[in-house]
Each structure stands twice: as C-alpha cells, then as structure tokens.
C-alpha cells in the first residue's frame, strides 16, 4: 500500500492518511489481520509528525477498521460487509455522476445513455458467464 499526500489539499494530512488506508481496506488491498506499518515508521516514511499518524490510526480504530494491540501493532479488522457495500454504492454513484455529466456535455439523450448502460451490463454478465465454463 502506497500513501500519497498532497500539501495543496484542503484536507488535513491525517485525514488523507486515514482515507487512503480505509480505501485500501474496503477495496481488499489490505486484508483481515494484515499488520499496518508502525505509527513511527509511517510518520518517518511520510515525513510527517507521529501525532499525525497516531490521529489517523486512532480514527480508523474508532471507525472499526483496525485494532491496536498494545506492543504488537495495528491490525486490520474483518471487513464490515455493510461498510463495504456502502463504499461500493458511493463509488457507483460517483462514476455515474461523472457519466451523466459527460452525457449532458455531449448532448447524449436519456435513451442513448440507458442503451449504453444496458450494453455494458450485458457484456459484463456475458464475460462473467463465459469465464465460468
């Protein structure tokens, strides 16, 4: 997992760290029982304060993504299926909003948009069905 920080972002550094770790957990990049980097090690690697990484890890623990085992480190907890579903819904909504804006800018009608979506869904289902044979 690689964490990329932006000094130009309005989002605080600890939130950038927290959000990227959360996303890695929800996407499955980080799996249950994976050990996260140490607070000090991550702070050193990212060239930020230990206070910043401590805050990010603390927030992740409060949100139920990780658990801190005293003297051993911070581990990823089992994924909450409802949180994973919420994350997937959010990603779909964002992607569809981008698609709707592109369609609007390109004067694509609702029928054309629906047709494109139907074709893509059918192709995805066909590929999934073909892979099982």
Describe this structure in words.
- There is one protein chain.
- With 133 residues, the chain is mostly helical.
- It folds into two domains: 13-76, Orthogonal Bundle (Arc Repressor Mutant, subunit A), CATH 1.10.10; 81-131.
- It has helices spanning 13-27, 39-46, 50-62, 81-105, 110-131, and strands at residues 66-69, 73-76.
- The protein starts with 12 loop residues before the first helix and ends with a helix.
Q: What's the helix and strand layout?
A:
Elements: H1 13-27, H2 39-46, H3 50-62, E1 66-69, E2 73-76, H4 81-105, H5 110-131
Antiparallel strand pairs: 1-2
Helix pairs in contact: 1-3, 2-3
Number of strands: 2
Widest sheet: strand order?
1-2
Strand proportion, as a percent range, falls in 5-15%
Please state the second-level CATH architecture of the largest domain: Orthogonal Bundle
H/E topology pattern: HHHEEHH
Largest sheet: 2 strands, antiparallel
N- and C-termini, Cα separation: 34 Å
What CATH calls the topology of the largest domain is Arc Repressor Mutant, subunit A
Overall tally of structural domains: 2
Helix-strand makeup class: mainly alpha
Residues in helix, % = 55-70%
Mean pLDDT: 91
Could you name the CATH class of the largest domain? Mainly Alpha
CATH superfamily of the largest domain: Winged helix-like DNA-binding domain superfamily/Winged helix DNA-binding domain
Number of helices: 5
Bulk shape: elongated
List keywords for this structure.
mainly alpha; Arc Repressor Mutant, subunit A; 133 residues; two-stranded antiparallel ribbon; 62% helix
């Amino acid at each position: 997992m690689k964490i990329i920080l932006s000094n130009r972002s309005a989002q605080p550094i600890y939130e950038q760290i927290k959000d990227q770790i959360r996303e890695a957990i929800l996407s499955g990049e980080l799996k249950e029982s994976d050990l996260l980097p140490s607070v000090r090690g991550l702070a050193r690697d990212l060239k930020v304060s230990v206070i910043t990484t401590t805050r990010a890890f603390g927030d992740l623990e409060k949100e139920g993504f990780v658990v801190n085992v005293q003297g051993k480190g911070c581990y990823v907890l089992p994924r909450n299926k409802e949180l994973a579903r919420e994350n997937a819904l959010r990603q779909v909504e964002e992607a569809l909003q981008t698609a709707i804006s592109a369609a609007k800018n390109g004067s694509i009608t609702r029928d054309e948009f629906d047709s494109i979506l139907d074709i893509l869904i059918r192709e995805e289902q066909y590929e999934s069905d073909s892979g099982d044979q």
